[in-house]
Amino acid sequence: MKRKICIIGSGTAGLQLAYSLKEEFDVTVVHANSSDKIQNGRILSTQVHFGSTRNRENRFNMPKWEDTTLLNSIHMTIGNQKLFVGKLKEPALSVDQRLYFSQGMKDLETKGVSFRHLRVHKEQIESFVAEFDLLIDCTGKSGPLFPFPIESELSPFQVPQRKCIVGYFFGVKPNQPLGVSVTVLPGIGEMFEIPALTEHGSVTILFLMAIPDRELDVFKKMNNKNAFTHQMKNVTREYFQDIHERIEQDMFALADDNAFLQVAIKPVIRKPYVTFKNKLVVGCGDSVFLNDPITGQGCNLSSYCAEKLYETLIQYKDSNWDIRVGEAYWDQTKAYVKEVTEWTNAMTKDLPQHVIQMLLGGAENQMIADEVANWFADPRKAYEAFFQPSNL
Ligand SMILES: Cc1cc2nc3c(=O)[nH]c(=O)nc-3n(C[C@H](O)[C@H](O)[C@H](O)COP(=O)(O)OP(=O)(O)OC[C@H]3O[C@@H](n4cnc5c(N)ncnc54)[C@H](O)[C@@H]3O)c2cc1C
Questions:
Q1: Which InterPro entries match (predicted)?
Q2: Is the CB of 8 under 6 A from ligand 1?
Q3: Fewest beta carbons less than 10 Å away: which of 95, 107, 196, 325?
Q4: Are 272 and 315 in contact (CB under 8 A)?
Q5: Is the CB of 104 under 6 A from ligand 1?
Q6: Which distant-in-sequence residues (6+ apart) come within 8 Å of 66 by Cβ?
Q7: Residue 10 CA, ligand 1 centroid: distance in Å
Q8: d(Cα 194, Cα 39) in Å, to the nearest integer?
């Protein structure tokens, strides 16, 4: 008989785990919202799946997407100075999570994975632990359900560092070559412009990261789509001229009534395993590795760790699933989690001089521009550039 695994949460981490584990194990996914509700609900995030994440999606035969919005580059601007366009080694893709999650859930159901529609509460976790051989907590930023210990060295913040303000828009002519555009306005925040694929076709995501109580923090009480759209137009006019010039005034509109979001995240990193009622429980994704979205690593880190967890469970397929398995999983992920987290935390602060010099160097030298672009695809390189510049 196959061992029974329960994955709580059907987001980035939960879905990839379900795809990877479904052949070897009897997998049940418990999910708070139905696929229809997700598909027709509010946007959940922005998301850029870089090359290595897309390679893992292929490895585990996850759904394929139209490649009409492949992202091949990173455009970098500081203040009002466009510095460079760096080329990514492998194309990235941003698919609206409402579409990505709902399609993944429906597809997995046809492939033998069981689904239970239930928002799990802490009082219920004991019965889940008793029913399954292993629980994987993939509850994302609203989690975790289990008491995974906080890694205080990697969790320096007591409050969110940014307000995240996101809209999926029609009527913004994308930057060419198609890619993610990053604009840093020192001291007040950042704008990320991301061409993305949605149920309604191609859109442009405008993702504003406002330092609280500074000039970009002007969306308080913007709860309706017209006020939100109007304010985004004002902000681009005043602070992001390059985007503003590409807005087609009579076409500029949210992709649908639910295509806007405001959220603020307090980053926290936890050790991703714990023993609960004498059984091992593990966590994967934001429930245990929650970073600020500023470097766009959340989905990529979730996918990386989900693959490592899959490999660990396969390695220990015929052994006891005890604390050793949790330790082996953490050993496989710790270094990467640390590098992503420390780079991400550093990006929420003033950029160090040597990094500014490197960005300016990208304006003169295409090799440097390409190197910086690939920080986002391989955050270990970014970590090196920030913290071990003498190794470069
Ligand atoms: C504004 C914003 C912008 C972002 N931009 C990027 C980006 O550009 N690139 C990037 O890589 N990442 C980005 N991220 C981060 C990325 O979205 C997350 O890191 C990623 O989705 C985490 O995957 P996950 O599976 O851990 O959690 P999620 O994808 O959030 O999934 C969690 C799932 O668990 C379910 N759930 C929660 N609690 C329960 C419960 N009690 N019972 C049952 N089900 C439950 C939820 O309904 C959800 O389906 C961004 C995040 C935000 C908020």
A1: FAD/NAD-bd_sf, StyA_sbd
A2: yes
A3: 107
A4: no
A5: no
A6: 197
A7: 9
A8: 20
Does ligand 1 come within 6 angstroms of the Cβ of 300? yes
For residue 141, give both structure tokens.
């930023």
At 68 the pLDDT is 86
How remote is the CA of residue 140 from the centroid of ligand 1, in Å? 5
- Integer Cα distance of 344 and 21 in angstroms: 30
Q: Is the CB of 283 under 6 A from ligand 1?
A: no
**For position 392, what pLDDT does the model report?**
64
Could you state, in chain order, the average pLDDT of each consecutive group of 10 residues for the chain (392 residues)?
Answer: 97 98 98 98 97 98 93 96 97 98 98 97 97 98 97 98 98 96 97 97 97 97 94 97 95 98 97 97 98 97 98 97 98 98 97 95 97 97 91 66
Query: Could you state, in order of their start, the residue ranges of all structural domains in the chain?
Result: 4-42+97-157+266-347, 48-95+163-264, 353-391
Q: Are 269 and 150 in contact (CB under 8 A)?
A: yes
User: Measured between alpha carbons, how far is residue 128 from residues 116, 122, 143 in Å?
Assistant: 12, 10, 16
Does ligand 1 come within 6 angstroms of the Cβ of 297?
yes
367 C-alpha to center of ligand 1: Å? 34
Distance 47 CA to ligand 1 centre (A): 10
Please report, as a single letter, which amino acid is at residue 220.
K
Strand pairing class (179-185; 189-198): antiparallel
pLDDT at 157: 98
> 215: buried, middle or exposed (CB in 10 Å: 19+, 13-18, 0-12)?
middle
CATH topology for 4-42+97-157+266-347 is FAD/NAD(P)-binding domain (3.50.50)
Q: What is the CATH class of 48-95+163-264?
A: alpha beta
- What is the amino acid identity at position 339? E
CA separation for the pair 93, 95 (Å, rounded): 6
Q: Is the CB of 32 under 6 A from ligand 1?
A: yes
Assess whether the C-beta atom of 142 lies below 6 angstroms from ligand 1: yes
| Cα(352)–Cα(368) distance, integer angstroms | 17
Give the whole-angstrom CA distance, residue 197 versus residue 176.
Answer: 16
